[in-house]
Write a structure and sequence with these properties.
six-stranded parallel beta sheet; single chain; globular; Rossmann fold; Dihydrodipicolinate Reductase, domain 2; alpha/beta
Length: 335
Amino acid sequence: MKVVQIGAAGHYAYALGTIKKYGMDFAAICYPDAEDGAARAARNLERFGFAPRVYEDVETMLHEEKPDIVIVNTVMYKNSQYAEMALSRGCSVFCEKPVATEMDKLEHLVYIYKEAKKKDPSICFCGMFGIDYLPHFETAYRFVKEGGIGEVMLANGQKSYRMGNREKFYSDREKYGGTIPWVAIHAIEWITRIGGLRPVTVTAYGNTACNAGNGTMEASTLSVFGCEKGKMASVSADVMRPAKAPTHDDDRLRLVGSKGILEVRFRKVFVIDGEGERELPLVETETELFEEFVLEIQGKGKCRVSAEDAFFATRIALAARESQDTGKSIEILPI
């Protein structure tokens, strides 16, 4: 399989180990935005023994290389544009989130994906939700899907980061998409994929205060969801974790079910039910995200983060951002 990469502003590193493991051809790379981390990417690729050709133009690269897989992770507001270009040429796409920063662009991306899939059923699309593969979230997923806490009725998700030294484009919400589509989307994906909830309305809030001088970046957000069958969820996201915090991120998930409550916190999983409270032993994932994506393209498996998961999480996040901006509750339509 031949792989090319567009941009280097995201989590392309998810793919590198699998590309090397399977002896895939990392043929070329293009940096379409001035804020793509070209120098850093070159160093990372060199560590894996990759020396891809560097193109100045994305269309030229896709036309000349004719890749099987395109990694898309430039500055976020351009992701949907390049993902569409790749899908239209019959390429599978591994795309940074948010996969689109505007609702109309998301709708068009979904349309292009479905049309490409009709022509070639082997074409796949995957969002870069690699956090799902960490042992604590995989453990939670398996326990919930096996009925460990019964029917989930209420979910609370948290995504908290240190601010750190961010690239300039993070100061411009038009470029990075906003803190809900960028950060909160992870916890949104947890409540849908792990918790099984289907949000239908959202009321959301955001604040640029305390954003360390990063322009229009929201430093804190809160989204409250009404879900199908009267279920409920909330998601908070912030970039206000202190610099001296022991970890860069603080990811939490609380699921309240008909048979018990599950909590993910401090990279551990806790359950309280009729037997009392206990910590679950963590399970390791057998494959990485990009590896599952490749196996699905080859017809040898199914990636647990589906195209529909990525599209629906993005739709929810963009609806929440609209609610934040308008001060109104927004209806969330199905994909």
